[in-house]
Amino acid sequence: MKLGYSETTSTYRCCTACFPITVTDAYKADPNIVQEAVEFLKNANGTKRIFYGLGVQDPTIWWLLIEWETLKHHQDLKRQRAIPDSETEDPQVQFRAPYAELALWTLKSGHTTKEKKEHALELLKGVVTTLNGLPSDSGVFKGTVGPIVEEAENGVALTLGWTSPDKALETLPEAQVIIDELKEIADLRLVHVPLTSAK
Asked: Record's superkingdom (predicted)?
């Protein structure tokens, strides 16, 4: 499945699980408290990479992203949300950017049809394809888009990387038209996170 790329040959496939976790008082007192869990996940069967960090818009949320070899590896640990089969030359490049963007779209009641989900996917693929074609000095790192397959099955997820959280609409102002169209049929949870790589 090609996600947001023009005619680029790719052999890389993965499944990325995404977890928003509310920060506890224990974490505030000692952010290293998460390291035991991160180490466990690093050594779990099928783990490729792990990224984590606090959200920019809402720093009370700690984001954990786990890149699995397959969706089955993810399901074996009974996790909650996943973006399947991302295909890019280097799918984690957006997670290594100064700021990763996670745009999680969930179709509204009355719009949860296969056709609406496919329409949302096509719109977002167009945005990502355009952004992925921009020069390196534009402030964007290549991203992907794909359907959410667990928890919010009526959802679509887009991931990008930016040099700054403010770069998105500044770089591609015409994307606002697509965002406005999507907001008529779907709710958006948008976050930017400076991620740390654990593997």
From this structure: Eukaryota
Q: Which residue carries 């280097």 as its tokens?
A: 90
Distance CA 47, CA 17 (A): 11
CA distance 6 to 12: 15
Summarised one tens digit per residue, pLDDT across range 116-162 is 989 998 999 888 888 888 877 888 888 888 888 766 568 888 998 99
End-to-end CA distance of the chain: 25
Residues in a beta bridge with 186:
107
* DSSP category for residue 41: H
CB 15 within 8 A of CB 73: yes
* Whole-structure pTM value: 0.67
Cβ atoms 155, 106 nearer than 8 A: yes
